[in-house]
Amino acid sequence: LAMTEIKIILVLTIQSFSIVDAYEEFDAVKKNPKGMNVNGQRTYMVRGTGGGHPVDGYPCKAKVYSSRENDQSD
Q1: For residue 31, which phi and psi values (nearest 5 degrees)?
Q2: Of 8, 32, 59, 73, which sees the most CB atoms within 10 A?
Q3: Which of the 8 DSSP states describes residue 26?
Q4: Among candidates 43, 44, 21, 24, which has minimal Cα distance to 33?
Q5: How far apart are CA 26 and CA 31, in angstroms?
Q6: 20 has which bridge partners?
Q7: Cα 9 to Cα 23: distance, rounded to the nearest angstrom
Q8: Considering Cα of 55, then 13, then 74, then 69, what sign does the dihedral take?
Q9: How far apart are CA 12 and CA 42, in angstroms?
Q10: Where does the record locate the signal sequence feature (predicted)?
């Protein structure tokens, strides 16, 4: 039951956000025009203190949608 509740909450939460990486802007600010890719992906895991994490801390932009933007009944 707890796992079902967690899955439901996660689905409802994910529908409220749009998360897009911002590596192009990050590289422009850091004057790193190429940006390193691993297997064709700009976002890749690196070793860090206490475990792996996304390279450069995963710079991203998040947009929160209002309930009206999520409503597709219109």
Answers
A1: 55, 45
A2: 59
A3: H
A4: 24
A5: 8
A6: 61
A7: 29
A8: negative
A9: 28
A10: 1-22
The Cα 59–Cα 41 span in angstroms is: 14
Residue holding tokens 């996660």? 10
Tokens matching residue 30: 């850091």
Please give the structure tokens belonging to residue 69: 């933007």
CA–CA separation, 17 and 8 (whole Å): 15
In single-letter form, the type of residue at position 59 comes to P
Helices (H) and strands (E) in the chain, counts: 3, 4
pLDDT in tens, 23-74: 889 988 988 877 788 888 888 888 877 788 888 888 999 888 766 555 555 4
Q: Which two tokens stand for residue 29?
A: 């600010």
Q: Residue 56's closest CA among 19, 23, 18?
A: 23
Question: Residue 4 carries which side chain, given as an amino acid letter?
Answer: T
